[in-house]
Amino acid sequence: MRRNTSISRGAFYKGVLLAGCLAFAVAGCAPGPAYRRATVPLAPAYQEAMGAQWVPASSESATLREDWWMQYHDATLNRLEAQVDASNQTLAAATANYFAARAAMRAARAQYWPAATLAPSITQQRIAAIAIPGIKNTGFETAEYQFPLTASWEPDLWARVRKTVASSFYAAQASAAERANVRLLAHAALAAAYFELRGVEEQQCILQETVHAWQQEMDVTRHLYRHGLSNEEALAAVESQLKASQAQESLLYSSRAQYLHSIAVLMGESPSRFKLEPGSEPISLPVTPTGVPAELLQRRPDIAEAERMMAQANAQIGVARSAYFPNVTLSGTAGFQSLSAANWFLWPSRFWSAGPSAAETLFDAGARRANVQQYRSLYDAAVANYRQTTLTAFQQVEDQLAALHALAATRVQQQAAVEAASRALSETQTRYAAGLDPYVNVLTAQITWLSYRQNEATLQTQQQIASVQLIEALGGGWNASELPSRKQVVHIKTP
Asked: Among its keywords, does the record have Lipoprotein (predicted)?
């Protein structure tokens, strides 16, 4: 009897060893398709070049600095931008989402290891008098003391866990890229709002001079009308211009308040308490290196996010295909069991059981096939989204380059117009001083000069906004090499 038990145990151990060897032998099987980055239409330069072809996208090193707003040499802007990283709530939410994605990957990696459960219990029960048929008894009470430790492990035979971990890793990288994109958009939005604010302030200064000039012309025209040297039509025309300029002042006040509120929210502050003194320092436009599409556009964080989401969708196909294979589990239970507390943890009270098990779905009405088709379609959607994101990025760079080129040419012409109007005003003032022209001519020339200055100020603001939007379209100095590695996702502690 003892010999048979020994043989039985030996056969059992051999079976377990064989099952383990089989598990490791087939653990390299990967049912999912190999990932290949989708191709994108790539032109050799940021112009309407002929012969564009489909090639794999790549990420190159950045040439823009990360704190790109420093290139405008505005101390106030630098101070405001520094607050974005610390207090912007949209960025804080994106950061929290990234940490959640990292935690999800660590949870997925836990499936590589066995799970153990300890479930001690004490059960007191009474057996009824008629509970055992054929045996007469008056009933009795008994207690059962258990201290079982259960462990189970599902070897990753079909790469389900590996694909799940890969999917979680790609999702974490996509979340990191999304956070970088949110940060870029927040900094760019603040810079744009700041330049709009300064542009409005410049417009307000010019408009104050304009209103004062129209008021002077109104007084002169009214004086001439009273002495019969003008008519009601001229008086009404001047009054309408004065009222229109005054109305424009009110609109500019509202615009400045809105840009100020926008800056406050981007900085994570209450708009009701945020204040900013008007600025007077000139803002210089930086020279932005654009490079070529293959070198620069692939540095955009939104493109990196779309590409990582494409990789995640590909990994999910492998997870879905692993459902076609049986689930193999190695499990065991050991512990102590006794009817007496005094004997609970004695060696004779020990028990154990162990062995492998397998489960294979024989019929599911096509659920697994449909699941695989679902993830294939999601992968196709991710590919299309990646390509569309890249095409949109090309368009945005081209749009801003065209805008900057047109604005530069227009501003040169407008500056020439301002200079010509200034010379005309100076000449009119000279003629008025010599008694050759009436003062109303001086006012008219002054109003024309102010109008041209206002147009120039508008063009300057548009140039600054287009410059910011170009930097935003180029990725703002971000680089795909900043995406976290597996080690960084798993081991770096969350603050």
From this structure: yes
CA 43 to chain centroid, in Å, comes to: 26
Tokens of 399: 């749009």
Whether the Cβ atoms of residue 329 and residue 115 lie closer than 8 Å to each other: no
Report the DSSP beta bridge partners of residue 122.
Answer: 145
| Chain segment 315-327, per-residue pLDDT in tens | 999 999 999 999 9
What whole-number distance in Å separates Cα of residue 322 and Cα of residue 30?
A: 8
Give the SS3 label for residue 41.
Answer: strand
CA distances from 28 to 170, 370, 465 (A): 20, 25, 54
**Domain limits of the chain?**
24-48+55-113+157-326+367-491
Query: Strands 115-118, 140-153: parallel, antiparallel or unpaired by DSSP?
Result: antiparallel
Nearest Cα to 462, choosing from 420, 421, 417, 405? 405
Identify which of 474, 469, 478, 447 has the alpha carbon closest to the alpha carbon of residue 214. Answer: 447
User: How far is Cα 240 from Cα 133, in angstroms, rounded to an integer?
Assistant: 111
Per-residue pLDDT tens over the stretch 436-463: 888 788 888 888 988 999 999 999 999 9
Cα(243)–Cα(251) distance, integer angstroms = 13
How far, in whole angstroms, is CA 431 from its chain's centroid?
62
Contact 331, 152 (CB under 8 A): yes
Distance of CA 492 to the CA centre of its chain: 21
Please report where in the chains the tokens 């070529």 appear, as a residue: 292
* Size of the chain, expressed as the number of residues it contains: 495
